[in-house]
C-alpha cells in the first residue's frame, strides 16, 4: 500500500441483524467496491467480508451495538465486484444511531490520512493482517496483536503432543445472536458536502427533529444564530480533513463539538425562501437516492417503532425550542455525516 491508492469513501447504514443488512449506501460504493447501490440494498454486508475475518466482524458488529459505541474504526478486507480485484483492504467507521449503525467505508492507506483518521477515532481495531496499519494509542502498552504460530511449527507441536486434530473452533467462529433492541437517542444527518448551506439529504429518525419536514433545508437553519459561525468553521475544517493527497474528496476522521439545535428551525428561513443551490452533476444521483430512501424508511426504520418520545427541551427562546446537543462530524467522498445526541449545558 502507498499514497497512490485512491482514497474514496462511501456512507453506509446497516441494520442490527446478525448479517448487518445494508439499508442504503451512497453512490461512491461503485468507485470503491464496484457495486451499484441497488445491487447491495437489503443484502448482508457481512457477505462482503473476507471469509477469514467474517466471524470476528460479526462479533464486532454485535459488541458495537450492545456497548452503544460511537466513532469507531476497524480495518477489514471487503470483496470487490470484479473477481480479478479480489478483496480490498478497507477502513470502516461506525456509530450506533438508535436502531441502525451509521458509518463509512474507505480504501485503507498507510499514509498520513490513515494516521489522522485513527488519531480522531474513539476506538481502533485491526482485523486484517496488516502490520503497517497497527496504530498505537497513547495509553495502549502495545499496538501489535499476538504473533500467530506458523503452520509448520503448529504441525511440529501437534506431533509432540500426539494429537494431529485441528484446533477447536473459537466462540467467534460459531457466534450467532438475535437482533438487538434500539440503543442511544442519537440522530444521524447526511449533508451535501458540496453545498455552501450544507443541504440536508437525509435524517435517520424523529428523536430530535421531525425528519419529514427538513428535506433540502440548510443544516444551519437548525443551528442557533449565536453558534452558526462556529459550526461553519467546524464543518469547513472537517471538509478540509476529508481531502486526500490528490485533492479529491475522501474520508477525513472525526470531529467533536457541542452547540444549540433549533427544533423547528429559524422562522425567517422556514419554507426555504432562499433560491435553490445548483447541485454538482456528480452528486445529483446521491441526493435523489437519499431523498427517496428517507421517504421509504420513514415507515420502516427508527421512525417505525411507533411515536418516538422526544427528549425534554430547553426553555423556549426567540428562535423557538432548542436543545443543547453533542455532535460528531465526519467527511466522506459524497457527503458529510453529522450525528447528534442530547447534551448537557456546559
TrEMBL record:
Transmembrane segments: none annotated. Residues 136-177, 268-316 are annotated as: Disordered. Gene3D superfamilies: PAS domain (3.30.450.20). Pfam families: PAS_3. SUPFAM superfamilies: PYP-like sensor domain (PAS domain). CDD domains: PAS (cd00130). Residues 13-68 form the PAS domain. This is PAS domain-containing protein. It comes from Lentinula lateritia.
Amino acid at each position: 500500500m502507498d499514497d497512490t491508492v485512491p482514497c474514496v469513501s462511501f456512507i453506509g447504514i446497516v441494520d442490527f441483524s446478525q448479517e448487518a443488512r445494508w439499508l442504503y449506501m451512497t453512490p461512491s460504493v461503485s468507485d470503491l467496491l464496484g457495486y451499484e447501490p441497488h445491487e447491495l440494498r437489503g443484502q448482508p454486508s457481512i457477505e462482503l467480508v473476507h471469509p477469514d475475518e467474517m466471524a470476528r466482524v460479526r462479533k464486532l458488529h454485535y459488541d458495537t451495538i450492545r456497548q452503544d459505541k460511537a466513532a469507531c474504526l476497524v480495518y477489514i478486507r471487503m470483496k470487490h465486484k470484479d473477481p480479478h480485484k479480489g478483496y480490498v483492504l478497507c477502513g470502516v467507521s461506525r456509530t450506533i444511531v438508535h436502531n441502525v449503525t451509521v458509518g463509512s467505508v474507505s480504501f485503507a492507506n498507510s499514509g498520513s490520512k490513515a494516521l489522522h483518521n485513527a488519531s480522531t477515532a474513539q476506538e481502533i481495531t485491526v482485523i486484517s493482517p496488516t502490520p503497517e496499519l497497527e496504530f498505537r494509542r497513547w495509553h495502549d502498552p502495545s499496538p501489535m496483536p499476538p504473533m500467530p504460530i506458523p503452520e509448520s511449527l503448529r504441525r511440529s507441536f501437534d506431533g509432540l503432543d500426539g494429537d494431529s486434530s485441528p484446533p477447536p473452533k473459537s466462540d467467534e467462529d460459531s457466534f450467532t445472536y438475535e437482533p438487538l433492541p434500539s440503543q442511544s437517542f442519537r440522530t444521524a444527518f447526511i449533508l451535501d458536502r458540496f453545498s455552501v448551506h450544507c443541504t440536508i439529504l437525509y435524517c435517520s429518525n424523529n428523536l430530535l427533529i421531525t425528519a419529514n419536514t427538513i428535506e433540502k433545508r440548510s443544516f444551519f437553519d437548525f443551528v442557533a444564530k449565536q453558534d452558526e459561525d462556529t459550526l461553519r468553521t467546524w464543518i469547513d475544517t472537517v471538509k478540509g480533513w476529508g481531502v486526500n493527497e490528490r485533492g479529491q474528496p475522501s474520508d477525513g476522521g472525526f470531529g467533536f463539538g457541542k452547540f444549540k439545535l433549533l427544533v423547528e428551525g429559524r422562522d425567517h428561513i422556514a419554507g426555504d425562501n432562499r433560491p435553490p443551490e445548483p447541485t454538482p452533476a456528480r452528486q445529483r444521483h446521491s441526493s435523489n437516492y437519499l431523498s427517496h430512501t428517507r421517504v421509504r424508511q420513514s415507515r420502516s426504520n427508527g421512525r417505525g417503532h411507533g411515536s418516538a418520545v422526544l427528549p425534554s427541551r430547553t426553555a423556549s427562546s426567540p428562535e423557538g425550542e432548542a436543545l443543547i446537543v453533542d455532535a460528531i462530524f465526519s467527511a466522506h467522498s459524497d457527503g458529510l455525516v453529522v450525528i447528534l445526541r442530547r447534551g448537557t449545558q456546559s
